[in-house]
Amino acid sequence: MEKEEAPEAGTLKLGDCKSIGFDDPDNTSACEQLYKAVFGSDATSAEDAIEKLKEYTGGEDDEVNARLGKLKATELKEIARLLGTKCGKNKEEAQSGIVEMLQHPKDSGKKPRAKRVAKKSDDEKPKRTKKAAKEEDEEEDEEKPKKKARRTKKAVDPEAPKRPKTSFIFFSNAKRAEVKEELEKDKEKDEKVSVGEIAKRLGVMWKALSEDEKAEYDQMHKDAKAEYEVAVKEYESSGKKADWEAAHADDEEAPKKKRAAPKKTKKAKKEEEEPEEEDDEDEKPKEKKAPSKDALTKQIQSLLDSGNGTDSSTGSISLKVIRKKLEEHFGMELTVVKDTIKEIVTSLAPQ
Length: 351
Fold this sequence. Notes:
This protein is mainly alpha-helical. The protein is built from 13 helices and two strands; from the N terminus they run ααααααααααββααα. It has a two-stranded antiparallel sheet.
């Protein structure tokens, strides 16, 4: 049977398109299928098919389209991968991309696609023995860093001097009633103004103040700090601090030990060798929910008002100090809401 001559339509040959994977040995079968679809007959060899296809310049031919339509979806996708066209979601989409490339060859500039390698199924993967799995788990446990036991903070003497309020806290105390009244005007009769809304408005107002306008509250903070330093010296010189520390030296709790697993009991006499599973659902402690944003805001505001949210060494507001105080107050770790805490502190006491 004589080969049909494919029509020529353009100047760019398929061999000029670097995006076509003619040189990939995995595409040999796709080259032979494409040759048969274009020229209507089988190639004498794979090398002959590739050489003829490289010289092909394209052209519209209904017979080529018809021959492609007789191929299976998997065969069309292999040809599409060879030509660098879209495989599509179905047979028609794959064929459409192939026909377009054959009619008007063009180089996409991309590298030829590599053939996908099928992943091994779970049945083909080598199975681990129980002994090997146990040894691997033990090695992983040894490599993991051991968590340090959490230690509780010592109690604070209620008679100790309170830290001085910051400039912003003095400003907030002076303007809080005024801001609350303004916000209530925009609310319905039954609606209440939240602590968070007041704090947010105060933060905006503080940022808008000039340095001269802030000077009044800065002076209040300086006076309070001077009074605090004097009070600390008197507290230490009076011996109250030493007495308190001596009386509460052993107040620091030891780290909590993990609860031992419940002992297994035996069932009936007939099943003496089978351990009974204990129902310890009631023994499991219920997980505490993280406090709400309003609850956090209220407590943070209280800490800032009392001056307990500042660093003793610098006198400035400290996120670390505030978070520790909040964890003591709520009796739980607040890592999950650390971003919320930072947001609230920023709104209450902007830099």
